[in-house]
Design brief:
Elements (H helix, E strand, L loop, with lengths): L2 E8 L7 E7 L6 E10 L2 H7 L11 E2 L3 E9 L10 E4 L9 H4 L23 E5 L4 E2 L18 H11 L7 E5 L4 H11 L3 E6 L2 H8 L5 E4 L6 H13 L8 E5 L4 H9 L6 E4 L12 H6 L2 E4 L8 H9 L9 E5 L3 H9 L6 E5 L3
Parallel strand pairs: 9-10, 9-12, 10-11, 12-13, 13-14, 15-16
Antiparallel strand pairs: 1-2, 1-4, 3-5, 3-7, 3-16, 5-6, 6-8
The structure holds zinc ion (ZN) (2 copies).
Length: 355
């Protein structure tokens, strides 16, 4: 019989999404149909919609990879999930390759990302692999599950970067770019016992994150020479009296100047994680890593294994979502893309496919 999904379809880059019905077949043995309660809007979606990046599936495609919803049908392997509220991870790994077996499913070459490899969550229903789905049974009474959509990508990406850097009690975390993923990185590092320096160009973002875990703020003045910026930040860091061995630097701005600054803050034995993305190359002295016996990781997305721990922080309200989210009807998607493109979207939009 199958399902009919009401979907917003990207049929051509730089043009409005088209509302259409898509027939979904009954799920195969390893797949499930999730009725979408909410889907977050991410910068990656904008990149696909404005034509700067081509989705792997090509066009037409239904975008959206921050999905929370209820399983309404599943093939044999996922039948126990029917009727459960679930988080759909932004990256659904194959579960059996050498990457997946090593706990590195976020780098799985056979991974499936909704709204990129397959149709995504800007729709009432989505057809996804069932094994990686994360049941939301642990949610406290009255928790607005729609907010969990941002855990699919932004929060879990931040969490994985923090795990990768082995952040511990007493560490000094430095987060370059304190909006979006960076804002959640600040909160998670704080929840794990680190003190956090949040760095951004935007005063509003810094003021918000000050209420949610930042111990010190530094606002970048773009007119200031790089050397002076670096010295300023190093001074703020030194004020905490934490040995550089326990410095954890997170580049979340996804800008070339942000990357330049983050790399320049690496001291002896320090660890940096590159989380943001931009196409521009930067010039660094890579030998500093040798001289400082330092480590730089890249971190992309999150393996499914970390979601339960990440969700626990959210359910225990150690990581706040509400102040960073705005709810919006999916029918406003084109206007929201426009707001996002012009930097007028201050909070992450969580879309309701039935409005
Ligand atoms: Zn995303
Ligand atoms: Zn795999």
């Amino acid at each position: 019989m199958g399902f009919v999904s009401e979907a917003w379809v990207l049929e051509a880059a730089k043009s409005p999404l088209v509302r259409k019905q898509i027939e979904l077949p009954d799920p195969a043995d390893d797949r499930a149909i999730v009725e979408v309660s909410a889907c977050g809007l991410c910068h990656t979606d904008l990149g696909f919609a404005d034509g700067s990046v081509m989705p792997k599936k090509g066009i037409p495609i239904v975008l959206g990879h921050e999905i929370v919803g209820k399983v309404v049908a599943a093939g044999g392997a996922g039948k126990h999930l029917i009727g459960k509220n679930v988080l759909v991870p932004a990256v659904l790994p194959c579960g059996s390759c050498v990457f997946c077996r090593a706990g590195r499913g976020n780098a799985c070459p056979k991974q499936e990302m909704p709204g990129n490899d397959v149709h995504g969550g800007f729709a009432t229903h989505v057809d996804v692999r069932s094994a990686p789905l994360v049941p939301l049974d642990g949610a406290p009474e009255g928790f607005d599950l729609r907010e969990i959509s941002v855990v699919a990508d932004a929060v879990s990406t931040a969490y994985q970067a923090i795990v990768r850097a082995d952040v511990r009690e007493g560490d000094l975390a430095v987060v370059v770019g304190a909006g979006g993923v960076g804002g959640f990185a600040v909160q998670i590092a704080r929840a794990l016992g680190a003190r956090v320096v949040a760095i951004d160009v935007d005063r509003g973002r810094l003021d918000l994150i000050e209420k949610h875990g930042a111990s010190a703020l530094y606002q970048i003045d773009k007119a200031k020479p790089f050397k002076d910026l670096r010295k300023d930040v190093q001074k703020v860091m030194a004020g905490f009296g934490v040995a550089s061995l326990r410095h954890r630097i997170f580049e979340c701005s996804g800008t070339a100047p942000g990357q330049q600054l983050a790399f320049s803050l690496i001291g002896s034995g320090a660890t940096m994680v590159q989380v943001g993305y931009c196409r521009d190359p930067i010039e660094v002295r890579l030998s500093n890593l040798m001289a400082f016996d330092a480590t730089v990781h890249g971190s992309w997305g999150a393996p499914v294994e970390i979601y339960p721990d990440c969700l626990r922080l959210v359910f225990e309200r150690k990581v706040a979502l509400t102040p960073f989210i705005q709810h919006a009807p999916m029918s406003r998607i084109d206007a929201l893309f426009d707001d996002m493109a012009h930097h007028r979207l201050e909070r992450r939009a969580v879309l309701d496919p039935r409005a």
